[in-house]
Amino acid sequence: QVQLVESGGGSAQPGGSLRLSCSGSGFTLENYAVGWFRQAPGKEREGVSCISSRDGRTFYSESVKGRFTISRDNSGMTVSLQMNSLKTEDTAVYFCVVRCTADLDMYDWGGPGTQVTVSS
User: Fold this and answer.
1) Angle at the Cα of 48 (from 112 to 69), degrees rounded to 5?
2) Of 32, 87, 95, 107, which cross-links 100 as Cys (Cβ 3.0–4.6 Å)?
3) Which residue from 79, 94, 64, 74 is spatially nearest to 32, judged by alpha carbons?
4) Are 91 and 119 spatial neighbours (Cβ–Cβ below 8 Å)?
5) Residue 70, Cβ density class (10 Å: 0-12 exposed, 13-18 middle, ≥19 buried)
6) CA–CA dist 98, 92 (Å, integer)
């Protein structure tokens, strides 16, 4: 069965850090643009970041630029999202997605999501 497997997340205080990871089960992420979307309670799902498959270009929403970093490991099998300087408004369910686009407005399909909660 082909699926995305997310790990990481949890709780942090404002100003803290968390790291999310995503890998593919039944397929490899190496050949796909991979990214992260998030959805907060009562809000629409929004694009956070995307990393291209060929040249490793990265794209970020304005709300996370300078605080979050997306990367692939050397094998290309795992994509991570390092989240620093977390804010309460970063609280959301974060979804790993494939075939995301540079303008972060669409993707092909995603994982089940992992909760990130930022509170003091």
Assistant:
1) 105
2) 107
3) 79
4) yes
5) buried
6) 19
How many beta carbons lie within 10 A of that of residue 73, not counting itself?
A: 12
Q: Output the 3-class SS for the chain.
A: CCEEEEEECEEECCCCCEEEEEEEECCCHHHCCEEEEEECCCCCCEEEEEECCCCCCEEECCCCCCCEEEEECCCCCEEEEEECCCCHHHCEEEEEEECCCCCCCCCCEECCCEEEEECC
Contact 25, 2 (CB under 8 A): yes
* Assigned token pair, 10: 């949890």
> How far is it, in rounded angstroms, from Cα 56 to Cα 46?
21
pLDDT of residue 28: 87
